[in-house]
Design goal:
single chain; 145 residues; mainly alpha; 7 helices; DoxX; cell membrane; transmembrane helix; DoxX-like_oxidoreductase; membrane
Amino acid sequence: MKNILFNTNNDLTGLVTRLTLGLILFPHGAQKMLGMFGGYGFTGTMGFFTNTMHLPWIIGFLVIIIEFIGVVSLIVGFASRIWSVLTIVLFLGIIFTSHLDNGFFMNWFGNQKGEGYEYHLLIIGLSIATLINGSGKYSVDERLL
């Protein structure tokens, strides 16, 4: 089981995909967990998820954990396959609950009612690549095996 979860191709592909995912998603997770980058922090985000979006508290909690703890784990290359699967599930949920009705394209020109899901598909694609390849070079997973 340890080999399945932590096995990694010792190459730069895993490094590039996990760092790209991690560095793009870190500000979003830091907003939700720490209130950085103009975010509301853990309490404010939980309030938004449960009171405004009417999500169960466990879903809001998992979103915050995946976007913060999971992203930090991706950056250091720990259990990248697990965090990739959770990121895929998270972003599929985001697409179907918040962005599907807005179409494919991002709202570059401010003429849509909201953002499309093209960004989310890119995150899912990078997560699939990380899932297939593993953490790559310079990762905690590389050291564990």
